[in-house]
Amino acid sequence: MKVKVFDESHEKDLENAINSFLSDILDLLDIKYSVAITTNGEEQIYCFSALVIYRD
Known about the structure:
A three-stranded antiparallel beta sheet has the order 1-3-2, covered by helices on one side. It has one helix at about 10-20, and strands at about 1-10, 25-40, 45-55. It is of the alpha+beta class. The protein contains one helix and three strands; from the N terminus they run βαββ. The protein has one domain: Dodecin subunit-like (2-Layer Sandwich), CATH 3.30.1660.
């Protein structure tokens, strides 16, 4: 069993990164998804992340 962590500032970038990675994976076990948000002054900062669990 292996894991791969993805972390992007835009949800579309996360989607593209995961889809690209999954094109080579035959035995996907699970995906854990998370969104975090914080502020820096008046700016909102997002963090979209996912943990992909798979078999080699």
